[in-house]
Amino acid sequence: MISKNKVIILLYMTVLIILTACNNESASEKIYTHLEEAVQLEKEFEDQQDLITDLEVKEQEIYSEIIDLGMEEYNQIVELADEAIEIIHERKTLIEKEKNSIEASQEEFRKIEPLLEEYEDGKTKDKGKEMFEVMINRYTSYEKLNKEYINSLEKEEKLYELLKDEDLEQDQLTNQINKINDSYQQVLKANDAFNSYTVQYNDLKREFYELAEIEVNYKE
User: Fold this and answer.
1) 58-85 in b/e burial notation, b at 16+ Cβ within 10 A?
2) Residues 191-214: what's their mean pLDDT?
3) What is the Cα 35 distance to its own chain's centre?
4) DSSP states of the chain as a string?
């Protein structure tokens, strides 16, 4: 089974001085606040990553242990399968926290949309709108990633239920493993898209801050 790739996180930027012209100062201050608050709201998302990875590794170890056992050790197989299912449930809980964090971030981020209209400078406004569009695409790509990952977890749980069946046939096992691997290919594809949008957004935010003359200190 394939583990979910490490995600790329957003950059947090600490403001030093806001140098925008007077007519844009208020918009810049508000936009900066919303953008960096959106990053902070994703902290819960970031915090789940290592925990999820650790559980993925633990589950993989259990799966390998089950495969090495013979049916004469059926009771041990059932015990391990139940343990793996419990880990899947833990992963679902962490994924839900991750999702809630992203949704809170999106709600905060969307507050900048009307503020971008306050810029008289076309380049700044256009860059802001480009940044906004990429970030919205990032949130959308996360929704797909979350959906694909949950789908994979459901298939994994089905696998362990099958492994608890004394009459399990090899074809059934192989078929379910193939479904899981196919599902995780979709997870990896969605994760790549999410990471790509994250990189694009981080770059565009730097460019936007420069055009808006918002001087910041980058903490990556």
Assistant:
1) ebeebbeebeeeeeeeeeebbebbeebb
2) 94
3) 18
4) -PPPPPPPPPPEEEEEEE---HHHHHHHHHHHHHHHHHHHHTHHHHHHHHHHHHHHHHHHHHHHHHHHS-GGGHHHHHHHHHHHHHHHHHHHHHHHHHHHHHHHHHHHHGGGHHHHTT---HHHHHHHHHHHHHHHHHHHHHHHHHHHHHHHHHHHHHHHHHHT-TT--HHHHHHHHHHHHHHHHHHHHHHHHHHHHHHHHHHHHHHHHHHTTEEEEEE-
The C-alpha torsion from 196 through 11 and 152 to 187, rounded to 10°, is 10
Question: What is the chain's mean pLDDT, rounded?
Answer: 88
Give phi and psi for 17, each to the nearest 5: -145, 140
pLDDT at 174 over 80: yes
Give DSSP secondary structure letters for 67-106.
HHS-GGGHHHHHHHHHHHHHHHHHHHHHHHHHHHHHHHHH
Taking phi over 0 as left and psi of -120 to 50 as alpha, with beta for the rest, 213 belongs to left
Q: In this predicted model, which residue has the larger pLDDT, 126 or 29?
A: 126
CA distance 93 to 87: 10
Q: According to the model, what pLDDT value does residue 134 have?
A: 98
Give the span between the Cα atoms of 65 and 150, in whole angstroms. Answer: 24
Sequence-distant (6+) residues with CB within 8 A of 57 are: 3
Q: Does pTM surpass 0.85?
A: yes
CA–CA gap between residue 202 and residue 182 (Å, rounded): 31
